[in-house]
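Sharing a chain and its predicted structure for anyone who wants a worked example. Both blocks are below, sequence first, tokens second.
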Amino acid sequence: MSEKTERNYRKMRVGIVVSDAMDKCIVIRVDRQMKHPLYKKPVKASSKLYAHDESNDAHVGDRVRVMETRPLSRLKRWRLVDVVERAK
């Protein structure tokens, strides 16, 4: 067994909370802009991520940062790192 103590690189994403109805779980929307493969026009695309929120800190409309983690349930593969900006 090696003496390696550092962890591998983890993916980080920033998104907007769209749901906080579950206990210790939030749903965030991550927006990105891509170029259409055929027409080369910029197109907006988004994806939903389910993230673990241990203290129920984030609420709908907040901008949050999440980090990739081991599978915590059927859908949750991310955990909340911090709230970047509160909703107004």
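Comments welcome. Residues 28 and 49 are 5 Å apart (CA to CA).
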